[in-house]
Amino acid sequence: MFLQRCITPDCRAEYKLDERLYVCSRCGGLLEIDRAEDIAVDSASLRELWRTRRLSSAASDRSGVWRFREFLPFDENVQLVSLGEGNTPLYDAPRSAGYCRLPQLKLKHQGCNPTGSFKDTGMTTAVTQARKLGARVVVCASTGNTSASLAAYAARADLLCAIIVPSGQVSHAKLAQALDYGAKVLEIEGNFDSCMNAIRELAQHDSVYLVNSINPFRIEGQKTIAFELVEQLEWRVPDHLVVPGGNLGNSSAIGKGFRELFNSGLIDRQPKITVVQAVGAAPFARFYSQHDSSFANEEHPKTLASAIKIGAPVSWQKAWRAVRETGGSVITATEQEIADAKAMIGRDGIGCEPASATTVAGIRKLVGDGIIKGDETVVAVLTGHLLKDTDYVMKYHSQDLIAPDGERIASTFGNPVNRVNPVESILDMITE
Length: 432
Ligand code: F0G
Hints:
By secondary structure, the chain is an alpha/beta fold. Helix content is about 35%, strand content about 15%. It is built from 16 helices and 13 strands.
């Protein structure tokens, strides 16, 4: 009952689920998974079924992705590749809320997934599909998190894995994960976009299966972030949902999730989806602000938020649809704003990586501009864990963080390590 369909409006070519494609073979457009026909959903019993599955000990019920399998394009008897992904916390963040001049703000922490980022929610479905298709080698290009996640899921599935990363631009924590999980790590000179070009060429080869977010089976898993979120909110839809944007797979996926929930009658409206990019890597924000023009890539993306240092986002058309349909927006945050927002999220006892903090930086601006009102409900999606990039954190707190343009980032909320000597002075220091 599911199929693959081209998203280009005047093409809409259809393909079976087991056709190994990444783009439409007729027009080169992006593909998405769709149902062959609409199905009637009994909202109350489906919500109850999903709730009771949380008490089960079966792997398919424990996973925060597979728990929603009525909306996933797999048969009941498919052999899952799962690490117990999803089920991530939705935190109240009062300090970050105050920083944004809001009475309340909720943070959906996708960094609490098994490999520390939201990628796991999509990797479980993509690697399950890879095994179903009989692939031997799975590959991706990455700024670090996709590769860490793929390496782990490939290890679980006993598949060979190769990742292509931009040399010297991936945090050690992310690289360490891929190495430990046994992936072949290949560095190339250039940026993420050059890696993506290389991998798309490689994926022409029959023995290789590509699992970047251009692969529609990745998007299917990631869309369940929307399902889990509204379930945690007792099926009340927030007014705004804010998400970082890099390659634009995640905003596309969350948009698809909300659209499907809405079309099935499980929710009665959709949140406004806003995507935030780092100011030096913001082709989508530029497109949004001049949206009568065509999409132009950013040749030399620059940001310390290395996860989203991307100039040619593959899924921009899907993300654009999510923003347009929900009445959201696309904005940017400066390096200073990202760094300060990240430290503020930290003060709530919640650790995220720089890319994730674009959300709180963006929300602060949207409130300042009157686009988010004080009485509206807002959820930010934190995409990666603080431990993914500790180098950045240490530099921020010791006034040593230098932006790509050479400017030093002010440690507005800096909390440097203190050397104490003699020991008697410790009490003075902690009570001052
Ligand atoms: N946040 C983090 C922590 C990420 O790792 C990424 C993307 C994004 C946000 C942006 O998500 O690409 O779906 O718009 N990381 C990819 C990677 C590119 O290779 O790990 P997106």
